[in-house]
């Protein structure tokens, strides 16, 4: 692993200056440097160019603790790395379909008090015997949009797709060794026909896999019907945008975590009552979210999803879908039942940012690095762990509101 300071040696320094001169002379463009030097030298040269032109010192950005070529698949025009503090919540006991036992939850965040709050929730979950979690549905989607002449042609295309799903499956699956096409659902809007392809992508988050596979299937549609492909993504997927279809149909992993907490634990650990927690959840998360027209009926699931995504190398923009969650709370006898259901949690343990050094270590901490046995089990386990973390975060925040301790918690932590 590279030295943490990432200081260039004399040869690297000279090579970087040569690249800087060539860019200034117009011989090279800034995105071409890796073709003429190793990745660290290219990053150093690019950083110096930016420093000189902007007048900004980027020493901290240039201090990164891994070889730059480890990020070749993750970033273009690299100048360094952004460091985000990482902490852990837990341990918390998870009773999942794919993971079981005590888990520390790695979280990368700049929001003070967040991990402390989730950690408090984890301790309450453990005092109740741990939380249960299950992935209830899985499938990554891509939905191309086709143009047809009229509604009659639209109906003909829908019929053809339903009759030829096996042909589409064969074309799609020929592009991948791992992905499996689960189904194709047509949607008609005038002379536009959207085909929502759903794939089992195993332990990969699978967006690129789904895109490539769908391109092959779309070629078959164009060859065999009168439809013309307009866009490989027609926004009915829906990727990185708030969408009701993901809340209803799911995307990635649909996962739920729940727990029953004895009344005495609620009173002693959370300084409130089951009834107060249930009322806050109903009036805030359910009624308040409905009045606001929200798609997510929860307190702050996005906080946990974002922090774990950053720590484990997930696609950070997919927090948009990951926060599409519903939290429920009710009194059961003397006790408190709480659940959180994340409809569209898009996660993977192979590919993308999971190969970066710190992100790989965070996945190892959760026991889910790399491909699972059976395939898909590691991504399921990651989803279950995130759901339990979200449950802990929801419980802690709702209880803080119920006991009117939210502002005092931030004050005591000085943030």
TrEMBL record:
<dbReference type="InterPro" id="IPR002202">
    <property type="entry name" value="HMG_CoA_Rdtase"/>
</dbReference>
<dbReference type="InterPro" id="IPR009023">
    <property type="entry name" value="HMG_CoA_Rdtase_NAD(P)-bd_sf"/>
</dbReference>
<comment type="similarity">
    <text>Belongs to the HMG-CoA reductase family.</text>
</comment>
<dbReference type="InterPro" id="IPR023074">
    <property type="entry name" value="HMG_CoA_Rdtase_cat_sf"/>
</dbReference>
<dbReference type="InterPro" id="IPR009029">
    <property type="entry name" value="HMG_CoA_Rdtase_sub-bd_dom_sf"/>
</dbReference>
<dbReference type="Pfam" id="PF00368">
    <property type="entry name" value="HMG-CoA_red"/>
</dbReference>
<comment type="pathway">
    <text>Metabolic intermediate biosynthesis; (R)-mevalonate biosynthesis; (R)-mevalonate from acetyl-CoA: step 3/3.</text>
</comment>
<dbReference type="GO" id="GO:0004420">
    <property type="term" value="F:hydroxymethylglutaryl-CoA reductase (NADPH) activity"/>
</dbReference>
<dbReference type="InterPro" id="IPR023076">
    <property type="entry name" value="HMG_CoA_Rdtase_CS"/>
</dbReference>
<dbReference type="InterPro" id="IPR004554">
    <property type="entry name" value="HMG_CoA_Rdtase_eu_arc"/>
</dbReference>
<keyword id="KW-0521">NADP</keyword>
<keyword id="KW-0560">Oxidoreductase</keyword>
<protein>
    <recommendedName>
        <fullName>3-hydroxy-3-methylglutaryl coenzyme A reductase</fullName>
        <ecNumber>1.1.1.34</ecNumber>
    </recommendedName>
</protein>
